[in-house]
Hints:
Layout: E1 17-22, E2 33-37, H1 38-51, E3 55-59, H2 66-75, E4 81-86, H3 94-108, E5 112-117, E6 120-125
Parallel strand pairs: 3-4
Antiparallel strand pairs: 1-2, 4-6, 5-6
Zinc ion binds next to strand 2 and helix 1.
Amino acid sequence: MGISPKCDLCKKxxxxxxxxxxxxxxxxxxxFKNHICIECYNKLKEKYKIxxxxxxxxxxxxxxxxxxxxxxxxxxxxxxVVKISILKTACRNKEDAEKMAQNLVGALGExxxxxxxxxxxxxxxxxxxxxxxxx
Length: 135
Ligand SMILES: [Zn+2]
């Protein structure tokens, strides 16, 4: 039995071999082997990444320190999303929270954006510079 020349996911010609994907066994205990191209494999990997638990951080009484920004930057080397809770010791009102989020994203760079819900900001890193995806 030869290897299928087509990717079983996108049905494109299998030029760059990415992975083998086994289906769960059917009633008769048979599993099906799917051949996946490198492109589909990377897509699956990307999907899996998104399903990883989101990293969480807190801004406490030290506020938005340089050390904190550096910590966030480090985390974004491996993550695309980080949730940051702003504790009461770090800000008194919504305007402070908004300012803090803006300052943080400003310090991180152009590829970042945030969404603030209550006192929790979700910071997102884009692969390319692309603002205002979030409301
Ligand atoms: Zn494919």
